[in-house]
Amino acid sequence: MRRDMTRPRRARCRARGQSLVEFALILPAMLLLVLFGIDFGRIFLGWVELNNVVRDAANFAAENPSAWNTVSPNTAVQSAYRTLVANDTAGINCALPSTIPGPTFAGGASGAPPVGSPVYVRISCDFAFITPVIGAVLGGSLPVAASASYPTRGGMIPNIPAASVTPMPSSSSDVASESPSPTVSPSSSASSSPTPAPSPTPTPMCTAPNFKSVKAQDAEAHWAAASFTTQVLFNPLAPATWPSGGGNIIDQSLVAGLSYACDSTGVTVTWK
Predict the structure, then answer these.
(1) At CA 271, angle to CA 268 and CA 272, rounded to 5?
(2) How far apart are alpha carbons 43 and 95 in whole angstroms?
(3) What residue ranges do the domains of the chain occupy?
(4) How far apart are CA 264 and CA 218, in angstroms?
(5) Secondary structure of the chain in the HEC alphabet?
(6) In this structure, is the dihedral angle defined by the CA atoms of residues 249, 251, 253 and 259, taken in order, positive or negative?
(7) Sign of the CA dihedral with 249 first, then 251, 252, and 253 last
(8) Could you give phi then psi for residue 211, rounded to 5 degrees?
(9) Whether the predicted model's global pTM rises above the 0.90 cut
(10) φ, ψ (nearest 5 deg) of residue 107
(11) Cβ(51)–Cβ(146) below 8 Å
């Protein structure tokens, strides 16, 4: 009778021992999966924040395009640009290059770029892993990059000549030294009608189309159909070959239905 009562107790002990062994075997794999999810979750959130940083940097450069020209650069504005990028990336655990890359302007930056020309900003950094196993496999860090482009909103407007300025006399002595203008006799037979000045050539204007119902690969044809002669900028940058089915345009930098200069205004479309 005593032998029969001890059998269930022994069975329970064996079941508990088996559960401990199984838990000990599964625990490392569970911890690895949790750390793997934490690592790549951190990297994904950091990549999202890095995209916000490059948008802010491109917007800053678009408002101050003349600060990067090679003729008379503005070092104070360039320093403010680098400070903006460093402050915005301080909380995302991302190792930036030793020198923060500056913006790139279409056609170079030898002078003030024209209004509406695109400015590009691309920033890359390295995210460190906190999981030793993943770090050993992938090299300890993962390089991540983000880019953005905006049309410049400062500078010279193309095809509009600068007004000439007539110098004024610097002192009263200069006024006194000028020879008096000859008096015209009323009986003079010369014609007094002024010669009409040539009228300025008007800048051709075009109406911005609506891109939100257009595929990304058809954006350039849609832009040209509205009679614009500038190029379309893509955010993110357009691939060398569009994927099957293309991408959908979800936003545009110009307001659809408003008029802009046909030959000097660019547009940036956001697609996914």
Answers:
(1) 160
(2) 12
(3) 21-151, 205-271
(4) 21
(5) CHHHHHHHHHHHHHHHHHHHHHHHHHHHHHHHHHHHHHHHHHHHHHHHHHHHHHHHHHHHHHHCHHHHCCCCCCHHHHHHHHHHHHHHCCCCCEECCCCCCCCEECCCCCCCCCCCCEEEEEEEEEEECCCHHHHHHHCCEEEEEEEEEEECCCCCCCCCCCCCCCCCCCCHHHHHHCCCCCCCCCCCCCCCCCCCCCCCCCCCEEECCCCCCCEHHHHHHHHHHCCCCCCEEEECCCCCCCCCCCCEEEEECCCCCCEEECCCCCEEEEEC
(6) positive
(7) negative
(8) -95, -10
(9) no
(10) 85, 10
(11) yes
Express each pLDDT in 73-128 by its tens digit: 899 999 999 999 999 888 887 888 889 999 988 865 555 677 888 999 999 988 88
Residue type, position 163, single letter: A
Q: What is the pLDDT of residues 146-156, one digit of tens each?
A: 999 999 886 55
CA 77 to chain centre: 17
User: Tokens representing 44?
Assistant: 């994904």
Cα angle 93-96-97, degrees, rounded to a multiple of 5: 160
Q: Which CATH code is given to the segment(s) 205-271?
A: 3.30.10
Which tokens is 40 given? 């790549």
CA distance 260 to 229: 12
* End-to-end CA, the chain: 76
Which residue is listed with tokens 């002024």? 194
Q: Is the peptide bond before 118 cis (omega within 30 degrees of 0)?
A: no
Rounded Cα–Cα distance for residues 62 and 120 (Å)? 9
What length does the chain have?
A: 272
Question: Cβ–Cβ contacts within 10 Å for residue 244, how many?
Answer: 5
